[in-house]
Amino acid sequence: MTIPIARQYPPASGGTEFDGLRLVDGTLERFFSDGMDRADRLGAGYAGLWRALRSAARGGKRVRPALVLAAYTGLGGPDPAPAAPVAAAFELLHTALVLHDDVIDRDFKRRGVPNLAGVYRARAAGQGMSLEEAAHRGQSAAIIAGDLALTGAYRLIAGAELAADLRLTLLDELDSAVFASAGGELLDVEFSGTPEQPSLQEVLRMSRLKTAVYSFEAPLRAGALMAGASADALRTVGTAGRCIGTAYQLVDDLLGMFGDEAETGKSTTGDLAEGKCTPLIAYARLCPEWEQLAELLGGTPTRQDAARARRLLEQCGAREYVEDLAECYASRARAALAESALPEALVADLESVLERAVQRRR
To answer: Which PROSITE patterns does UniProt cross-reference here (predicted)?
Structure first.
């Protein structure tokens, strides 16, 4: 069974979640305003970096804060206000990891527009720097901004009005997410362009560590912890989040190769140029078409190269396999939710999150 990745589902949002997300946006705005005020005393350039960081954090889907709030309110959390700083912390973590990931991938655009590194690169080039120097300036600014967002995530939780033991538990949860994501990112770097051939299971483990933990599993657990959920509920939301996140990343890999660039904002040649070992590539390595496909990895692939790679991935069955694998993880998440004792409203919310994750177009 293959997944029609062109299909979309509208987001589900209740009044409580919407109020909570407004509180999250307010928390983030205060965080950035405070940062800009403090930075302005050290110089206009530093304040400008904070403004660029605020822009980088705006306009997202707020998936991770929404998951924190969904688990918190769905498991009996009475007031979203105390949960807002924790939800905002996961958005800052996402901003930090995206900024750093773009540097690792040497990307200067995101969603089709210049990212923070791209903005600073263009500014440096306009000041007369060489392209190489300008690129270094842009990437340096992105690393620094990412560091500020990462430490800011810890600051938001440390300053939240929560019981001391709960605050420490949530800091540990955030730290575990950072630790897992860093390990997954390193594996992604090491797998790219290596002569060794990591197994499909190793590639899936990398995807789970890099994305699923911080994007789905940890936010859901954080919300559940604040609601005082039982050990069973914590295990269930963690399992569901892990499976949803893995399915999400598998779809992301599909979109990186087969998606519409106008919608995804991602180049369909990027993964080829980096020689990324996605599950598509891990599967294709076992097929007769691999010799032809391997010639297209690395370097500067053209759109014609990308089209040929797509044909080969479809011909060898890699696309269908990864689509089916995404559906397999989605089915595991559905089963975990169906067999759980979670409140019906929370189950419905998480099922909606799951459908949007696997049916998205960008």
So the answer is: POLYPRENYL_SYNTHASE_1 (PS00723), POLYPRENYL_SYNTHASE_2 (PS00444)
